[in-house]
What we know:
The structure is a single chain. By secondary structure, this protein is of the alpha+beta class. The chain has two domains: 116 residues, no CATH class; 321 residues, paralog of FGE (formylglycine-generating enzyme) (Alpha-Beta Complex). The chain has a five-stranded antiparallel beta sheet with strand order 1-2-5-12-6. The radius of gyration is 30 Å and the shape is globular.
Amino acid sequence: MPGKPKRNKKNNLFFHRKGFFLISGIIIGVIVIAALYQTSVYFSSNESCMMCHVHPHAEESWRLSSHVNNGSGVMVNCVDCHLPPSDHTWEHYTAKVALGTRDLWGYLTRDSADFDWNRKSELEHAVQYIPNQSCVKCHQNLFPEGVTDDGVTAHLYYEENAEKLDLQCISCHLDAGHYNPGYVHSRMSGIPGVTGAAAADTSLFFQEPTRVTAFSDFTEQIPGTMVSFQMIAIPGGTFRMGSPEKEPFHHPDESPQHEICLNSFFMAQVETTWDQYWAFYAETMSEGRTAPENVYQNNLNAFGVDAISGPTPPFGYPDQGWGQGDRPAITMTHYAAETFCQWLSAKTGKKYRLPTEAEWEYAARGGTETAYFFPGSPKDFSSHGFMRNIFKPKTDSISAYVIYDLNSGNRTQQPSQVLPNPFGLKNMLGNVMEYCADRYDPQAYAKRSGVTHNPWVTEGEEWVVRGGLYSSDAAEVRNAARSHTRHDEWLKTDPQQPKSIWWYSDIRGIGFRVVCEPDPSLL
């Protein structure tokens, strides 16, 4: 019988080498995987995060937060909040690589003294770095023992609308991971002049409103309060409303330019302040809800003060902890602003209201016809465009007059921070967007011809807002730039049914200023 074929030495050597390389490859692969895992574990520790994240209060605020300082003894670590859950393997590790690379590059190439820590701790920035599924991973029971009635309402709303409205947990729980002593997520109390606040000295209250005997600037006094404010006499006239098509950053709704003729009016020198708004709130606050059509009237003096139903208490402090006093009041609805005007009219015996859009632009221009009421082109000041990553925009002249993205610190500022326009008005551009009395119509200008006298648009779904806000680019704070309310979007996280008619939950840089119609005998 023929014998089995014998392997030669060459074949045996080949198979031995193949086996050696296979085993070596497996061993090396195991070592590499183990090393990568251990590296991942190390760079997922709080200590490794603190190596690059040099925020002076990051660790301190984390240790004071409810994610560490709680009764359960559970400690939530950095990666638990700032990365997708580890069981989402691909999302977790791709996010880890992307964020880690970005943070390391920033740490090595930038000076931490230049970081705007306040801005990075606010909601607009935080939502980019806190995946909502990480919150849900741990907080699976949204109705634990001891949750308040308001909490139950809010969490029911979240369960029903999370996916449809893209709701984020940190919209209401921003201080959960990093303690912020100024953050309040509950109904507010203790407003100056309201129950719970220190009693005011009534001997300092104004007894009578200011009597206006000539068409000139005057200081209004609100009877029953210590609040006064400056009103500027704006002489009537004709101007070209809108912007030419060649103006940098021109939008279609700003054209065609057209002639507008306006009567004279008084306008508040600054945006309505917290001192003014809290005086209104203290006297009219209510828990009830009055339908808007039953409150606002064309004749604002038709009702006495006692007939005016004011705002319900907001959740948290609507000033965002930025300060009150003479900073602009913010986050109220257009309806609330109109009701304030009704109250102010009843208190002073004058006719206060919101400015029409035409009055607003006329006042903002201060007699000028350029993009701004001060020298300079939007191209010089804007951060838009690729080249602005290389050549920084100019800020010198615009910063003297406008609170905007590059000088605001991402928050409102006091009127004293800027110079007035030629009419003597402050913050017409920037700081906060201002409500107008008009409904928004993108085709409004195209519907006019010749010289239009005192236009007032009454049809449309949204209201006109003007002037831009503290986070606006220079392109958005031009005299002619138009915008409008986004009512549903600005109430997205409000869990109340019906939603508040007084306070917006998802917009901060919105406010208003008032105008006063002069007695015809003064003109």
